[in-house]
Amino acid sequence: MNGARHVGKTWILKHFGTTCYDNVAYLNCDKEPLAANLFEDYDVHRIIRMLEVMTKTQIVAGKTLIIIDELQEVPRGLHALKYFAEDAPEQHVAVAGSLLGLMLHEGENFP
Length: 111
What we know:
The protein is built from 4 helices and 4 strands. A 4-stranded parallel β-sheet has the order 1-4-3-2, with helices on both faces. The protein has one domain: Rossmann fold. The chain starts with a strand and ends in an 8-residue tail after the last helix. The protein is globular. It is of the alpha/beta class. It has helices at residues 9-20, 44-55, 77-87, 100-103, and strands at residues 2-3, 23-28, 64-69, 92-98.
């Protein structure tokens, strides 16, 4: 999900998560200093363990919605999403970012 700042992207994702899932693991990449190294490699299982630590939430496949907000602030973050689809399709991930489509770095693949 992308769009201008303060239009409700985060609110709708959190509302969806709390309504449709047992729990939500929410990470704001703009506010969490550890997020800068989250996608140092594309080991999805390591990323999930780090998300559990950063969000203080146990992530259970199919029962937890992982929300990664302001993804454009983290190098390689967007590219890493395809590895979730390939290596952990059981995980439910939603991503948002302010003007995410305009902030993409040249050469970065959009999965």
